[in-house]
Structure formats: structure tokens, C-alpha cells
Fold this protein.
Amino acid sequence: MERMNSRGAIAAMVVGACLAGGVQAQNKPVQPWQPQQGEQDPAKRVPDTAVPQPTGDAAMPPQAWQAAPAQESSYRTPAYEEGRGGAFIGVSAGKGWVYEDVDQSARQLSAGYRWQAGPVALLGVEVAAGKLSGETDGGWRYDPVDFASIGFNGRFNFGRHSPVYALVRAGYWAADASVNDGDQRADVDGGYVGLGLGADIGRHFSLSLTYTSYVYFNELYWQDDELYYDADRADTLLFGGEFRF
């Protein structure tokens, strides 16, 4: 009986101690978990998944997706490239050769019209009239020569932005020369072709140097079903200016 009482007293003491410990544990505030040195926070053990950031047009707000207005090009065509076609008048002077090794002073007046044919070409027609002065050489008198021509006139600039150009002229010409100090007249005709080099000095004026070769026939006739002719040539080298309108 005494043993049972002793065991009951011990059990009561154990139960009382447990109850006292439980009450003390409930009265103690909860302490947060603190990582120990070298230990990783459990919340950081799982790597974050990086969300890709949009780039380019996708990064722009919807209102910015609208196409930007096209910017106007800063290129401007030089004035001498725009509407260069039109009428022209040219005046030139230099030297001419009708007789072998005899230099004669030459002058010419020309006029015409050219149309623009692309960014560097001007194509048109021309008429011209000129004169070679009379000269005395080695005791011989060489009479003056009057001539006129009609034909093609073309200009070709060396590039869209270059004022330098090549000149080409070709067509028909005729001449009237006096012989024996005007006692006789000699009329000749034929074809001509010329090449030149020039440069624009502003919008309405240019300078050029032109070499032209004139081919003509002294005699041209048929005899016994054969053509007989005596071909000859005259040349001019002229420097002058051209006014354009």
C-alpha cells in the first residue's frame, strides 16, 4: 500500500513538472530562425528564375511603335543640273587653216537650242556663221573665207556634280571664198565634226575650247560611170564663251 502511495506521489510530481514547463514555454516569445555562420538562408537556396527583359521595338511603349516619319534627304541637286536645257548663243575666236601651213585668224558666231537628256547630257541643234581673215604669207596673198554650218550640238558633263563637260558638234557646212583678190569666187561644201572641252561658270555662262575639221570637195563629177572628186580639209581651233537662256 505504501509503495502505491509512493508511486502515486512520484507520478503527481512528474505531471506537475510537465504542466509547469508547458506554461513557461507558452509565456516565452517565439524567436525567429537565425542562420548560423556558413549556413545558407533556406529562402535563398532556390535560384530565382530571371525574367527576360524585352528589347528593341518590344521595349517601346505601344504608342511609340508607330513608324517614325521619314526624314527628308539633305542631298540637293546642284542648280546647273536642274532644267539646264534652253537656247544658247556663242561667240568664239582663234585660228583657222584652209591653205597648208598658212594660219588665218578665225571668228565665229553660233546659236541654237539644247534639251536636257538625263543628268549629264544636253542634246540639240545649232547654226553657225564664221569668217577666216585674209593673210599674206611668203609673198602670196590668201583671200578671206566666209562659211556657215548647221547640225548637231551635244554637251556631256563629267559626272552629276562636275561643271566640266565635253562638247561634240557635227553637220553640214558651206563656204564662199574669193580667189585672185576677189576676181573669182569659189563655193565649196561638205561635212564637219568637232570636239571640245568646256566648263560652266555659273548657271548661264560657260567657256570652251573647240577643234573642228571641215571636209569639202574641190571637184565632184561623173565621167564614164565613174565618180571623180578632189577632197580637201579645213580646220579651226576656237576659244569662246557661251550664254544660255
Remarks:
- The two ends are 147 Å apart (CA to CA).
- The longest strand covers residues 205-223.
